[in-house]
C-alpha cells in the first residue's frame, strides 16, 4: 500500500535544527529553572551511587575514598562465585522469584475475571474495596501478623487444632518459608493487582459479547474467546514486568521473616548483601554481590522484553 | 435483559459459587485485621485461653491507655508524623517540578532528560553505594536521610506528567494571548486544575513514608528519632517490649504481651485505613494512567 501513495516532502518548520539550538534553549528558560532541582536530585541520589559501583572493583577503604582506593579487578566477583554459599542464595532468590510468577502472578487475573462476572455492582464494589486494603499495610505490620498468627500457639495453629491437626512451627521449618512468603504476598497484592486487569476489561467492546451470544457462546466460552484475548496485551506487559523483577524479591519482608531456623531457604542475595555490607562492613564485597544481582536482573528484563516483542509486539523499549 | 441462554442451571451454579468465593475472599482479607482489633480490646487471660474468635471478651481499652503512657511509643508516633509531613511535602513539590517541564512539548531537551530519568527505573547503584553516599553527605542519623533519597518516584512522576499533558493546550494558548508568561499560566491554570492529582500523589507518598521501615533501620541510630515502624518491628516481630510496657503485670493485670502487640498494630494502621477509602477512586485512575499509557 505504502508505495502507491506519493508523498511530497514539505520541510517541517517545527522540526528543530540538528545540534544545540540556543534560541530554543532560551525559550525554555523557565522550564530549566524549574527542572534544576529534580535534575540535581537524580544526579545526586541515582547517578552518584551508580558511579559508586566502582568500589566493587576496588579494595575500598574509608580513608582513601572511592577514587583513592586500590583497583583489585574482579577479585571480589571471583570470591563470590567460587563460594559454595553462592549457589544456595542464588537458588533461593531464583526460586522465590519463579514461584512468584507461577502462583502470585495469575492470582489478580483470576480475581479480575471473577469480579467481572459478578452481576451486582454494589457487591462488586464492596469486594474490591475490601480486597485493596492489605496493600496499604506496611511490610512490618504484615510480617508482624504472620509471625504472631503462625507461631506455635497462634491463631492458625488454634484453627488447625480444631480440625485435629497438630501444632506446626511454621516459621521454624525451612520447607514452609516459600509458601508463607508467596501466600502472604498473594493476600496482600491480589486486590491491588486486579485493578489494572479490571481497567483492561472495561475497554473490551460490548458488541463482541453480543456477537458471541448470538453464536451460542455460554459464559465460559465468552470468557475464553472474548474476555481473555481482550486483556491479553495487559497480561503480557505485566508478565514482562514480573520476569524483570525476578531478582528483586522483597528484601524487607524476607529480612523480617528470617530467623536462624529457616535460613536454609530464606537467605537471599539481598539479605546477604545487607549482612556482609552493612553489618560486617565488607563494602566492596557486598557491592560486588549487589552488582551481580542487578546484572542478572537486567538480563531477565531484557529477555522478557525480547520475548514479549516477538510474541505480542508490545515491549518496554 | 439477559438472554435465556446465559441463565441456565450451570450459569446459576457458577454465580453462586462465585459469590461464595468472593465472600470467602472478603473474610480472609478482613478477618485478620478484625481479629487483631478484638484481641487488643479483650481480656488478656481470655485471649491466652484461646476464647477470642469473633467477639471481644470483657471489652476494655486498658491496653491502649497503657500504650499511650509509654513515652517511646508516643515519641515514635510523633516522629512518624513529622517524617511523613516533611517527606510528603518534598515529594509532591519535587515531583511536580519534574513532571511539569517534561509535560511540555516546547521543553528543549525533553527526550534526553526523560531518558536520563527512566534509566534510573531499571538500574541503580544498589544498597552499599547509596548508603555510602548518605554517609558522605553527612545525613546519617538525621531526618534528611529518610526524606531526601527517594524524593521523586519516577512512576508517580510519569502519572503526574500524563495528567498535565491532558490539560487542553487551548487554555494555555488563550492565557498566552492575554499576556501570561509560563509562571503565571502555571499558577493560574495548571495548579488549580491539578488539585486532584496533587492530593492523590500526596497520599501515595504519605502512605509510603508512614509505612517505611528500612531507611530508618539502616540510617538511624538514635532511639529518640525512631519512627513507629521500628518500634513496631521491635515489639511485634522481635517480641521486645519497651521499658514501660514491660511492667504489664502491674496495674493492668489482665493485659498481656499479645494485647500490647496487637494494640500497636491497630494504632499503626488506623490512620491508613481511615484515609484509603476516600482516595480509592483516584488511585484506581492513577494506576490506570500509569500502567496503560506509561
Automatic annotation (TrEMBL), chain B:
Q: Which GO terms describe its cellular component?
A: plasma membrane
Return one Gene Ontology term, BP aspect. transmembrane transport
Q: What is its main location?
A: membrane
- InterPro entries reported for this sequence: MetI-like, MetI-like_sf
Q: Where in the cell is it found?
A: Cell membrane
Using the record's annotation, list all stretches that form the ABC transmembrane type-1 domain: 77-273
Question: What family is reported?
Answer: Belongs to the binding-protein-dependent transport system permease family.
Under PROSITE patterns, the record lists: ABC_TM1 (PS50928)
Transmembrane portions of the chain? 20-38, 81-100, 112-132, 144-164, 196-220, 260-279
Q: Which CDD domains match?
A: TM_PBP2
Question: What protein name does the entry list?
Answer: Carbohydrate ABC transporter permease
Coiled coil location: none
The membrane topology term of the UniProt record is: Multi-pass membrane protein
Record flagged with keyword Zinc-finger: no
Native species: Paenibacillus antri
Q: Which UniProt keywords apply?
A: Cell membrane, Membrane, Transmembrane, Transmembrane helix, Transport
